[in-house]
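stage 2 :: seqdesign
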């Protein structure tokens, strides 16, 4: 069975010559395989399509996918957005007192699943002809358990609470203080109790519009906990949070699952691993179709995801396995010092940062870890010459900096934006094309308006631009924000390989432990008191850096025996206690 999908947002018939239509062999034979909707976008008849894929290949916007699907999957369609639109196959089951995790690339239907399970979207089971009502849904649903879920949902016995993905929108919908927002949902005592748990007591009287990303995330999670409901959906609860807070939130979510059903979408694999009781992997082609896997134990799901092969489904989701190394070779040995960062300090009045400086070796990636509000971004901005330190800091080298908050104001296409940011020399450099643009598929975005890019696409574009610049030091501030798990891991490898080949150092601030582990040769650890005082220690070896950092958090990691990926130990477990006793917070066999 083949499906022909036109990714609606990508299709731009006003900007192309309808290559899909003109090159199609069936059109040339005189068959009416193409129809066009009001916007001039094509709908391809799946009955007539030969499956040759010429249209997909010729489309300048990579908007068409012709895909062969196993028959049994095709029969389990749950929703189709429109003729030739995205399709979702199968649904996950939620369970009492369990945290169910959803793992999948951006664009494979995670939000669609959440919308269906929360009753916001009535699934049409691929039938676009007939009117859809709760009754037709209940009739079409397979399995008694799912039926029971939807009967309760549509009858109002199962109330759903959602923590949305894009928390940045909250200030647009709510004007007022945090206390005002949370106070509408529960009693004062409950608000106080939850605020204490999530460590937001001190910001209760702040205006919502003045909150940082991390503070907004905690407020959104607090709101989800306070709202009455039996089912809680959390869409990317770790975004903007530092590792300590990610763990704090994970424990709170686990506690919530003692009383409610919880479904979590999360791209930080260490956190998803720690948080979930069971995981469904969503696989497919982003924008075209997504299939929900069978439920898997947490460790099996993540191992299969990293191996790139789902055993029960007998499906390869990636060509290459992702491997972690338990004892990475020392990267400083045999390498020259490339750059020395001088000691400096910065006093904002309320917050003070200092560094003793340090040496960076050629071709190495130094991960930068520490809590929010400890001065990491300030440190980068001073190095990049964007703000001044208390004393002059002159590095005398060319720096390429990807900031934390990305500008989407540019009016024009991705191609125009890239031409504005990079020199002709940089753009025509085969290294840039082969090592950055090609693996990150940047050319697929060329014709898109910068303002229309999704969070993940925008992040990818800014990382690609920062890495393509000819520079002596590369600074990347939170590159994993909005990237899905697959792209995070891929990006870690791209950055590491690039620096190694270029022989230039990079420093990368991030909170995703898998990303840090895969990308970094050494670590710069930020310690102090968030919002008051911060200082940097290192760069240290990855092992020493992680040990120091995790010790300050009181968290230990073990290694998965199969994939060697780091796994968070349950606090107070035998392993946790033993590792703490030995001072081995990271890297044990
Ligand atoms: P994810 O949450 O995994 O990123 P989504 O469920 O948001 O994925 O989207 C999956 C696909 O469905 C996307 O390609 C998106 O363009 C498409 N899609 C989402 N909502 C609609 C809609 N209302 N109409 C048409 N297509 C949609
Ligand atoms: P991190 O990147 O580790 O989260 P930042 O460098 O962004 O930390 O901020 C460190 C501290 O400095 C925070 O408490 C922040 O509020 C404060 N800060 C940042 N910029 C300024 C500024 N321009 N004026 C005063 N305080 C600032």
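stage 2 :: out
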């Amino acid at each position: 069975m083949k499906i022909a999908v036109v990714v609606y947002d990508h299709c731009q018939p006003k900007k192309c010559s309808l290559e899909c239509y003109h090159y199609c062999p069936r059109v040339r034979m005189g068959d009416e395989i193409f129809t066009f909707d009001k916007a001039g976008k094509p709908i391809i008849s799946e009955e007539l399509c030969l499956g040759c894929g010429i249209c997909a290949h010729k489309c300048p916007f990579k908007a068409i996918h012709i895909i062969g699907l196993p028959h049994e999957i095709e029969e389990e369609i749950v929703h189709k957005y429109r003729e030739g639109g995205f399709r979702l196959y199968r649904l996950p089951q939620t369970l009492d007192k369990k945290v169910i995790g959803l793992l999948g690339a951006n664009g494979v239907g995670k939000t669609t699943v959440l919308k269906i399970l929360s009753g916001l979207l009535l699934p049409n089971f691929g039938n676009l002809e007939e009117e859809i009502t709760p009754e037709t849904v209940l009739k079409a649903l397979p399995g008694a358990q799912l039926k029971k879920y939807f009967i309760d949902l549509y009858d109002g016995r199962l109330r759903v609470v959602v923590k949305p993905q894009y928390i940045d929108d909250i200030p647009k919908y709510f004007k007022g203080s945090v206390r005002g927002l949370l106070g509408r949902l529960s009693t004062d005592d409950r608000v106080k109790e939850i605020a204490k748990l999530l460590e937001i007591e001190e910001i209760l009287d702040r205006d919502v519009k003045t909150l940082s990303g991390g503070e907004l995330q905690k407020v959104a999670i607090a709101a989800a906990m306070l709202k009455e409901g039996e089912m809680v959906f959390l869409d990317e609860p770790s975004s903007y949070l530092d590792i300590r807070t990610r763990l704090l939130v994970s424990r709170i979510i686990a506690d919530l699952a003692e009383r409610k059903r919880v479904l979590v979408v999360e791209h930080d694999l260490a956190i998803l691993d720690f948080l979930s009781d069971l995981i469904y992997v969503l696989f497919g082609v982003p924008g075209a179709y997504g299939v929900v896997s069978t439920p898997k134990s947490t460790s099996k799901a993540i191992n299969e995801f990293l191996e790139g092969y789902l055993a029960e489904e007998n499906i390869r989701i990636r060509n290459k396995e992702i491997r972690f190394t338990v004892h990475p070779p020392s990267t400083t040995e045999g390498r020259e010092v490339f750059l020395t960062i001088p000691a400096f300090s910065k006093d904002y009045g309320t917050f003070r940062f200092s560094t003793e400086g340090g040496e960076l070796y050629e071709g190495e990636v130094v991960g930068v870890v520490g809590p929010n509000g400890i001065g990491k971004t300030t440190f980068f901005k001073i190095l990049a010459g964007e703000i001044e330190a208390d004393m002059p800091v002159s590095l005398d080298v060319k720096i390429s900096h990807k900031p934390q908050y990305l500008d989407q104001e540019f009016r024009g296409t991705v191609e125009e934006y890239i031409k504005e940011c990079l020199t002709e020399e940089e753009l025509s450099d085969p290294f840039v094309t082969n090592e950055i643009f090609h693996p990150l598929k940047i050319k697929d975005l060329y014709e898109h308006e910068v303002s229309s890019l999704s969070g993940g696409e925008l992040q990818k574009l800014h990382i690609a631009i920062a890495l393509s610049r000819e520079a002596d030091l590369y600074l990347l501030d939170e590159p994993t924000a909005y990237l899905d798990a697959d792209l995070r891991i891929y990006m870690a490898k791209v950055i590491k390989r690039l620096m190694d080949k270029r022989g230039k150092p990079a420093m990368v601030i991030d909170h995703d432990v898998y990303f840090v582990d895969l990308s970094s040769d050494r670590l710069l650890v930020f310690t102090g008191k968030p919002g008051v005082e911060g200082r940097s220690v290192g760069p240290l070896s990855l092992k020493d850096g992680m040990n120091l950092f995790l010790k300050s958090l009181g968290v230990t990691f073990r290694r998965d025996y199969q994939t060697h990926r780091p796994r968070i130990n349950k606090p107070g477990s035998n392993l946790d206690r033993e590792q703490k006793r030995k001072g081995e917070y990271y890297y044990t066999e």
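stage 3 :: structure notes
- DSSP finds 23 helices and 27 strands in the chain.
- The first strand starts at residue 2 and ends at 6.
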